[in-house]
């Protein structure tokens, strides 16, 4: 499994404009829906927001992972939003983010869900990776970065990427 297996250029928003977490997530979910990466966008949005309300998914370093295990996807999917300015995710300034990974995984696949979160965390701990994501000029360059920083393994490795 590589994280790039669950991303596509069409699900990367390089100029994400949002004033708060809900607006950012709503924009990313709309992008996912417009490219048929999810079913029932309203349900998916409500599930992601409900998860965020329980415990915000910002992990520091300008990164957040709003996510849900859901019936709205048949395979894992990740959308990446990169904001030009920091977006508040909680009332703490240290929780402002510029990189937002909205993720949905099948409800019955907890193992893959945890593997994806772990891989994202491991990659995003690397300052060089975050800096390169923030400076990438194109969505294609971002996918190339994921491929450069990862090694393949796992059951979804040969799955088709969302177009």
How would you characterize the overall build of this protein?
Strands 1, 2, 3, 4, 5 and 6 form a 6-stranded mixed beta sheet that branches. The model is unreliable at 153-163 (pLDDT under 50). With 163 residues, this protein is of the alpha/beta class. It has a single domain (3-149), classed as Mannitol-specific EII, Chain A. Helix 1 (21-34) runs antiparallel to helix 2. It has helices at 21-34, 41-54, 110-124, 127-135, 139-149, and strands spanning 12-16, 58-60, 63-64, 67-70, 77-88, 96-106. The chain is 39% helix and 23% strand. It contains 5 helices and 6 strands, in the order βααβββββααα.
Compile the SSE list and pairings:
Elements: E1 12-16, H1 21-34, H2 41-54, E2 58-60, E3 63-64, E4 67-70, E5 77-88, E6 96-106, H3 110-124, H4 127-135, H5 139-149
Parallel strand pairs: 1-5, 3-6, 4-6
Antiparallel strand pairs: 2-3, 5-6
Helix pairs in contact: 1-2
């Amino acid at each position: 499994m590589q994280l790039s297996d669950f991303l596509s250029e069409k699900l990367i928003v390089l100029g994400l404009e949002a004033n708060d977490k809900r607006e950012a997530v709503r924009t990313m979910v709309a992008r996912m829906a417009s490219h048929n990466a999810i079913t029932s966008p309203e349900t998916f949005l409500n599930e992601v927001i409900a998860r965020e309300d329980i415990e915000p998914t910002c992990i520091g370093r300008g990164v957040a992972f709003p996510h849900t295990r859901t019936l709205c996807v048949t395979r894992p999917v990740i959308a990446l939003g990169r904001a030009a300015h920091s977006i508040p995710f909680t009332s703490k300034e240290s929780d402002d983010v510029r990189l937002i990974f909205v993720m949905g995984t099948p409800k019955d696949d907890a193992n893959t869900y945890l593997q994806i979160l772990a891989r994202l965390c491991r990659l995003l701990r690397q300052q060089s990776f975050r800096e390169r994501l923030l400076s990438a000029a194109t969505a294609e360059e971002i996918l190339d970065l994921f491929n450069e920083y990862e090694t393949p393994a796992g059951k979804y490795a040969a799955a088709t990427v969302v177009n």
